[in-house]
Amino acid sequence: MYIDLSLRRMLPMLVIGMVLLVSVAATGNIKERRYGSTPPVASIGFAWQELTLRVRYAIESSVWKTGQVASAAFSFFSGEEEATRGGAGGRTARAIPVLTYHRIVGNRNDLNNVTVRNFSDQMFALKRAGWETITLKEYMEFMDGTRELPERSFLITFDDGAKESFYPVDPLFDMLGYEGVIYVIASAMYTEKSTYYLSPNELRRMLDTGRWEIGSHSYDGHRPYPTDRNGNTGIFFADKLWLEEESRLETTEEFTARVSNDLAHARKVLEDEYGVIVNTFAFPLGNETGIEGAANFPPGAGITEDEAEKLYDLGFLQTDNNNFTFNYLEDRSFIARRIHVDHDWSGERLLRELEGGLPKELPFEDDFSRDRGWIPAWGTLDLGTNNFLLRADEGASSASAFLDGSALWADYSFDATLNWQDGSVFLLADLTNSKTYNACVFSPGTVRIQSTKNGETRVLAEIRDPKFAYGESARMGIRVHGAVIECLWDYSSVVEAYSRAMSAKGGIGIQVWNPELGSAAVQVWSILVRPFGS
Fold this sequence. Notes:
globular
């Protein structure tokens, strides 16, 4: 058999082979630069997702912008005034919300993470309503009092450093002009061939967009660790860990050193790898370290916060139902709260949460025709059309709710009309959180003034009178001004105390209590809050 090996025959094959080799090498080089050690098939999937989302958002953007122009024209020709929503000429922010997400997943809901569809709906809803993102630097300067920001500014964060925090999000941020922060588990980014965690090359490319920042989410403190000889696990930053070789729990000194070393090592690794300043820390597991789930060391949460404050300028927790959702300029605390966006929130729901948390002005009136930002601290709150029904859960004796956005109020009168049929009703004022407030407590035949601080309650004054009785339209109130706390019945002052801090301020709330478990309930018809003296 004859084979032609002449240069004329072989040259085209050599050229084709060289082109293929160069293409493969170039593709491999591009893949390495863009995706690091991510497996090739996964890299192709993320590249395809990124491309298709950019096309999709480009189309949605053109439709949205056309709608914006049409809306503006209609407002002009019909003589409508647009509501001022931040930006030039708008109001200055007095508090900033921080959102937190983990992964943005495909349209198949996993009941934990927000889907691409819901996330885009949320971001478009916020953008339409005038909400704009800020950077970490802008947030910290605002909290330091050195920078003003327009109302409806917000910070958006993502925990864990997952690929699905970046690839589905960046095309949308690019189109909307939004920015975000990813909190990275420093050890996890080095996981070889990971399809979950962003690799160093991916994080580097992400930072190069100018749309993203990074923060610390620990070095290796995000996974469970053994806390006893039986293999039970606990929280790295809250529990004393079990030392198997020595068959004992670590000491307080060992706990403190371990926590401090992890916090410091995470910051150093991230700063050395990316050449950026990493001065913020997001506590793993979202909640205040150890408040829920700590197995063996209650002081651990406080120690971790103290150690984190030595190494970072800002620490993020997750908002719970005990606090106002926004971070207020007056707080200036190391700890900042974040709103966890639930998997099933629509854009309308997220917008309602943020609008409800905006600082509110006095006078304030609520007939509960819509939700204006009431938060159930515990128990169940049914808010419907002209309905406010607060009731205790089964097995509990009380329920409590407070009004988001009322944290800055000072010297005011809070009156409520309600259907009071059993138990005791508390009207709360000067509320800084669900465990610190002043209160007027209305029970049949008795009204008391109480002051509660960090859950510890003192009775300041009390009056007895049979006119304090149940009724379908009971009218009760609390008035706070200067050093005075007053309780009102049928709009008249019935008892007062002079134990209030002169500079006190805070929001309002309502509680209900009944010793019979599961029975406490009250329906409120309307409330009115007015500045004192008006």
